[in-house]
Design brief:
With 184 residues, this protein is mainly beta. The chain has a single domain, classed as Jelly Rolls (Sandwich). Helices cover 7% and strands 40% of the residues. The longest helix is centred in the N-terminal third of the chain and has 8 residues. The mean pLDDT is 97.
């Protein structure tokens, strides 16, 4: 596995090796000792999540879980293709308010490690997209929150236009970053 640090401290692009032949391929997508050695994060994944999006342009984010239910996420696309985004909202961080994006697809097999203290979201680039991710804490509805996905403060290139965006009711009314009460 190759771990490439991003401009946001603690966020890594993870590229598992694929061993292929005429039948297809095999890939080890997570190995605790290698993950800890490469990221410096000694985490325990305690929940796996799976998301299916029927339409291109589906936005899921920018979401977070507030402490004490803050979550780190190891995200991968198992079918289709997404733009995956992490926004640094750690108070005092030198990259506070900045973001990184990565294209994750079933074809490239890449993953994004997003520690707690970040907003996270993704946009589907094709129909019938599936995303699987491991998280470091249990989901809590009372600690669930979001920030507006297309907030001009972030200037994120989601790979789609605003007109193409398919949003949940919750994400349509998310607060702007400037109006958000940061729980981190």
């Amino acid at each position: 596995m190759q771990f490439t640090p991003t401009k946001l401290e603690g966020v890594f692009l993870v590229e598992p090796k694929r061993f292929g032949d005429d039948r297809g391929f095999f890939s080890e997508t997570f190995r605790q000792n290698v993950f800890t050695e490469q990221t410096g994060a000694d985490v325990q994944f305690i929940q796996d999540n799976f998301s299916y999006s029927k339409h291109r342009g589906t936005i899921r984010g920018l979401h977070y879980q507030a402490p004490p239910f803050a979550q780190g996420k190891l995200v991968r696309c198992t079918r289709g293709e997404i733009v995956d985004v992490a926004v640094d909202v750690r108070p005092g961080s030198p990259t506070f308010g900045q973001h990184v994006r990565a294209v994750l697809s079933a074809e490239n097999g890449h993953q994004l490690w997003v520690p707690a203290g970040f907003l996270h979201g993704f946009a589907t680039l094709v129909d019938d997209t599936e995303v699987a991710y491991k998280v470091t804490n249990y989901y809590s509805g009372a600690h669930d929150g979001n920030v507006l996905w297309n907030d001009p403060a972030f200037n994120i290139d989601w790979g789609i236009t605003d007109d193409e965006a398919v949003l949940s009711d919750k994400d349509k009314i998310a607060p702007l970053f400037a109006d958000w009460n940061n729980p981190f």
